[in-house]
Amino acid sequence: MLLRKADVVEGALKFLDTEGLDGLTMRKLGAALNVHGGALYRHFPNKAALLEAMANKLTEGVGAPLPEAPWRDQIYVLGQRFRAAMLAHRDGARLVSGTHATGANSITAGSLVVDVLCGTGLAPAQAGSLAFSLYYYVLGHTLDEQNQAHPPEGWQSSENQLASTLTPEYAEAIESLMHTDPAERFAYGLNTFIEGVASRIPK
């Protein structure tokens, strides 16, 4: 059967789930798809191009039409969609952060954020800046969330040693942070971001 470009991307995302981003090579992916690694280069000139296509596929649906709702709710939905898209695949946030996000799906999602913010009365330049701030928050939170799911060996002993040097307030803050559900933590930060955006809207 002829291997299509879409088949390569789908196969690469499945490979990502089993082996992680560090294990992904063109040769290994070719073996997983039962083709020679060189066959993949007919669709993608290099691994970077493949990663861009994977990131674009991963963010599919983030920019889908929004429900009729106040702008705050729409921004909240977009933030949650983006996080969910990256969490759907192992190392999803690392994949997205390592690309230039120039695919059609990424551009559509970004345009939607800007359109929602401009609808509040913000100028396009302000809306664009805030859209990138939202992108960075969601990406950073999800990246840390996925990293914590696979902590490095010996991290617990290092954390215990560090704990003795922290102020009581910081130690309590870290303790709370580590034991709060990631979804709850994310929602708190997202709502705080939205409140910050509200303060920028012209009265």
Descriptive terms for the model:
203 residues, flat, single chain, mainly alpha
Give a short summary of the structure.
With 203 residues, the protein is an all-alpha fold. The chain is 67% helix and 0% strand. The longest helix is centred in the C-terminal third of the chain and has 26 residues, at 124-149.
Outline the structure in words.
- The protein is mainly α and 203 residues long.
- Helix content is 67%, strand content 0%.
- It has 10 helices and no strands.
- The radius of gyration is 20 Å and the shape is flat.
- The termini are far apart.
- The mean pLDDT is 91.
The main sheet comes to: none
Class by helix and strand content?
mainly alpha
In total, the number of strands is 0
User: Order of helices and strands, N to C?
Assistant: HHHHHHHHHH
Low-confidence stretches: none
Distance between the amino and carboxyl termini: 61 Å
* Helix coverage percent: 55-70%
- Strand-residue fraction? under 5%
**Global shape:** flat
Oligomer: single chain
**Overall residue-averaged pLDDT value:** 91
Helix tally equals 10
Rg (C-alpha, Å): 20 Å
Describe how the helices and strands are arranged.
Elements (H helix, E strand, L loop, with lengths): L4 H15 L6 H7 L14 H12 L12 H17 L4 H6 L6 H15 L5 H26 L5 H9 L4 H12 L2 H17 L5
Helix pairs in contact: 1-3, 4-6, 4-7, 4-10, 6-7, 7-10
